[in-house]
Design brief:
Shape: globular
Structural class: mainly alpha
Largest sheet: 3 strands, antiparallel
Strand content: under 5%
CATH topology: Cytochrome C Oxidase, Chain A
CATH architecture: Up-down Bundle
Oligomer: single chain
Radius of gyration: 23 Å
Order of helices and strands: EEHHHHHHHHHHHHHHEHHHEEH
Amino acid sequence: MERSVVAAEGIEEVVMLPPSRSATREPLAATQTADIRALLGAGDEDRVAVAHFLVGALFLVLAGVFQLISLFSLRFAGLSPISYGRAESMANITIMLGFLVLTLAGGIYYVLPRLTGARLWRKELAYLGLLGVSGLVVLDLLAVAFGLGEGRQPFGLPWWLHLPMLAVLTIPFAVTMMTIRRREEERSFVTLWFVMGGVAWLPLLYFVYSAGSLPFVGSLGAAYSDLFFSAGFVTLWVFTVGSGLFYYTLVKELDIPLASRQLASVGFWSLGFAAAWWGSAQLVFGPGPGWIDGVSAALGLAFPIGALANAANASLTLQGHWEKLRDKPGVTSGVVGLYLGVAVAILASFAAFPSVGSVTALTGYWEAIEYVALYGVGVLLAAGVVFEALPRLAGREPATLDRSRSFNRWTVVGVGGVGLSMIAAGLVSGYSWVAGSNSAAYVNAGEGWAAGAGAAEVLMLVAVGFGIVAFLGQLAYAATVIGTVTSGRAVPQEVLVYGPDPDSDEDADE
């Protein structure tokens, strides 16, 4: 492997050129191993992050396939190869655990050494987490496909798969906290707040979700635990970690200071300790305690406050620097993701009020909120980190920016179209059920349920069309990530240089 090195301020810039096997007499197996290492990056911590990004990109494409099938089955139930219940569960497993957990965890492993000045603690454990989550996602998909699950949303998994998944989801927490514990940097950037909160909340959220499978927990308790996990995953993991990682990307790539630590603090605490209440609002007027409706409506307002604080902070940071986004499609992805997150948060909190919830409850409205949050906000925030980190990690940049720009266009148009179509379909269904019941035209239960839902069939067909556009965006994301690593043009590569590692026997002997 040929390379030129320039050392400056504790960081080496390395230009790595494609390896030439004719120039070495190393064994083939050793050469292949070296090639793989070169593709994943120069430093061990860099390889951990790149491996997470690559596997996450593959899961995103698979999630897009399952989501298309689920949208198709909503409109053409008799023609779908998989029922809506199974297709939706398989899509949720793949996008939430396979893509968003792995990709954002890779982003965490990317920023930790750079913000702490310490080596990533137990990188072998981080690799084990990658293998564990990936393997369990495959097992989860097989379990749902063969009907072994319990049918609980959002995953529908059998109870015996919860414990191993909970174990592997604690790995990012252990790696993150131990790395921060050994930090050399005295000041902490705001990204560390968001990262620490996310890795602490993720296993706790899954613990609450898995507790719904315990035999002494009733169906009502299980329903609330399901909704708490879904809403908490969106706010406490996707929005919180995604926004925190993008703060680092924004400052790093554009070389500008963050506008306000106070706004970042508002965004962090709002998302972290109140925003998840919008989940229980989906069961308004349900059999739960009466006080939950009012509390959900009040505390659910923290969701748009947190999302708006982060989006405003990014806008203020970019003031006078908007022209720099022209050649930074990754940063553009993150900015669009923050803005889209504000729209999602406003719509979710709006429907949390009982007067609106009486129409939107148990309709496609909430499916639209979750879809846009996961496939829109989550994917865009992930791209905001991944697209800009890969050239630094792998020493390669995309051969063209057209793919990443196409990803932004297709994702915004496709996900936005699906969201608007399903929101409209939910409102049409909700008003049809309310009108049918009030006018005594039909009872909004049993056959009356289908009578109300049937009014939205055209809108669901439109959603399928926009879903195809969104899937093209997901393919563009995967092509950008994989193409950058495997065939991108060589560029200066960032390699971190550390002092002696207190946990290393080799350094101790020296």
